[in-house]
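Exercise 3.2. Students should predict the tertiary structure of the chain below and write it as structure tokens, then compare their answer with the key that follows.

Predict this chain's 3D structure.
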Amino acid sequence: MDIKTASAIRRLRLVSGPEAVSFLLLLVCSVLKRTTDFNAVPAMGMIHGVLFILYVIFWADAWNRTKWSLKTAALYFVLSVLPTGGFFAERRLKREAEDAVIASRARQEGKVTA
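Answer key:
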């Protein structure tokens, strides 16, 4: 995996957690708006909207660079619209990046010894 591909996965991973947290907070703010006088939905909605847009941009970049299958790309997109999906996306992306590093090191060791 080249550095640009690793960076694309890392960016997606770093935004997926905060995006999931903002989604959950937006849901809490929506409930509070309807049950109390507290209304943080406009502010939380804007924060979540910006994080979601960043997620989609980074998702598209990662899909383009990694050449994911349609199924994998769709999975990461669906995880972005589920309330806790960002946490699962972050975990899968971390595992994918670690596997790529291990494979890259194995290839380098194979070239050195061959």
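Discussion points: The radius of gyration is 18 Å. The helical segments are 3-35, 41-66, 70-81, 85-113.
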